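Summary for the steering committee. One of the milestones for this cycle was to obtain a three-dimensional model of the protein with pyridoxal-5'-phosphate bound, which we needed before selecting residues for the alanine scan. The sequence and ligand used are listed below.
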Amino acid sequence: MVSRAWVEVDEAALRRNLRRVKDAAGPDASVVPMLKANAYGLGVAAVLRMVRAELSGRELFAIGVAAVAEGEELRALGWTGRVVVFAPAPPDELPRAARAGLTPALSDLDSVRRWAAAARETGRRLAFHAEIDTGMGRAGFPYAGAAAWGAAIARETGDLLEWEGCFTHFHSADEPELAPTDEQQRRFRESLAALPAPGDGSVRRVIHSANSAAAVRRNGYGGDVVRPGIFLYGGSAGPGAVPEPVVSLRARVALVRDVPAGWTCGYGATYTASRPERWGTLAIGYADGLRRALAAQGEALVRGRRVPIIGRISMDMTVVDLTEVPEARAGDAATLIGRDGGEEIGLDQVAAQAGTISYEILTGLGTRLPRVYVDGTRAHRDA
Ligand SMILES: *Cc1c(COP(=O)(O)O)cnc(C)c1O
């Protein structure tokens, strides 16, 4: 136990999830693991090391991020391979992206012109991927009219730029019904077919559309590349795409007290003891990413038993009712997400209880929590 509270990351499970995505996408597909937002909160340096250990150079096409600063961080970590920046960058960040040797996703002609200007300045031929909007509506060239905008891009790029890839992004690939995703893929294909061929005819553009859900449930739609995120980190990507758990959230019981019937708990005194009770104060709160919305139905595991969260979750503390676990002691590790003995609290279950999604739970895990990397194989065997 390293701290008052911490995040445990099961490296072996993450690597098995990554391998499952790669296997589903097929032998010809390579992978762009999405490491944006500090690898969904798990720690980008460690996750970079894991994906490099799991995938061969040929299997690992690039690392995916959302922000130019995240690409710069990967360079500082010593990653010299491709970095694709998927979110549109504010105009003034493109020169920085060029200096760091990043590959942006571009969504309009203005950005293509700015990227060409950056190439002229740096004196290097710069690569980019064109995003095609097939219904996500937040970025990309419209899927219709590809012949016209494709030709316009080609005019801007000249010899300055390498139009390396084309991709789209799905809005509902984790839903039970996959017809809307199939329709987005159809639009993507239609758009690609209308694009002018690469100039010298020798270069084949890299085509990709699949997030975790489409990689696992639709075998990546036969794309050259798949772009998994949440599945690697243990979040469900829809029916038939449930990964192994990767993340555990633990906090120590800092204090155990007996309280009389009628005693109240937390801001707003929303909870009142209905009998003499034993309460445990956990050293974790919403500043650590434990969502206040969990208070109504949230639970923790203490000594392998389920105990309810009572009262409101504070910034730094959370109270659980330990009356049914009389052997609990200050110093025990409580589990808010993950397994303890025969019991388990799932990431997706916590997200549902908090009225959100696994992505928001993971990326909301506080910077105050150390990330601890374990090989869970043995622990699971012991359990
Ligand atoms: C975040 C992101 C992904 C990964 O999505 P998951 O649902 O986490 O697998 C893939 N592609 C793009 C463009 C993204 O921004």
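Key point for the committee: The pocket of pyridoxal-5'-phosphate is lined by residues 34, 86, 169, 211-212, 227-231 (CB under 6 Å).
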